[in-house]
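pinging the channel bc i need a second pair of eyes. not urgent but kinda urgent?? the chain im working w is below, pasted from the shared doc
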Amino acid sequence: MKNDPFENIQFLNRVQLGAPIDFHLKTMFSNIKIGDLDFLSLYNECMSSTGTSAPSWKTYRRAQRALILGQYFNYALSVPGRKAECGVLLGFSALLTSQIAHMRDKSWTGENYHLIDSFEGLSEPELKDAIFSGNQTPVASHKAGHFAIPLVKVQNNLTSFPNLRFHKGWIPEIFLSLPEDEWSYVHIDVDLYRPTLTSLEYFFPRMAAGGVIINDDYASPLFPGGGNAWIEFFDRVKKPFTVLDSGQAIFINK
């Protein structure tokens, strides 16, 4: 393993090239359920339906994160409050969690679930998003506008749940379009420092008792800003949180 994140990703892509990925996924995740749903079937269906893919280095980490996300969403369905996802991309995690909500309530079609994204890609990275690679010169892994997916494409991926609420715009201004209410589940996957920090500043004081906030970027090798913002915020509010080997961080409002 390498210390440089770019070198490490190249290394993992090289050594895993040609590995039997499906065999490993089945071995790791077969017979695991979220409620009544077979996780691996759900995962593969949502990946295929949304056109989502994972590079070789991220294949197993993505599946592990999806399982954790699904389990905490399933938990949050028993906590009163609205649900939100900040950073939607192609709609993979929104579809996966929506399928779980539908499993729990067959009449559910997306009510009180709010999906927030610019749908114009990343905002401009800043220094706290930089990776110090090689000669320790700070570099950004992606430029502004990367990951841009048209809203209509995402909506087409989620047509099974017509009452999902889409909020197109930049964080934090887009939060003005949200209902002033309590939230039982917030998934933050916006990659960068500033939108992660302002998402926490908005949702944290509005969390329901027992509500959960999940950050997918806490230990992302390509997006350190997400973790930097999370640490800065929770140092400020002096609340404990959990760090997982998947690279996610989780706060429960206990």
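so The chain has eight helices and eleven strands. and The first strand starts at residue 33 and ends at 34. — does that match what u expected or am i reading it wrong
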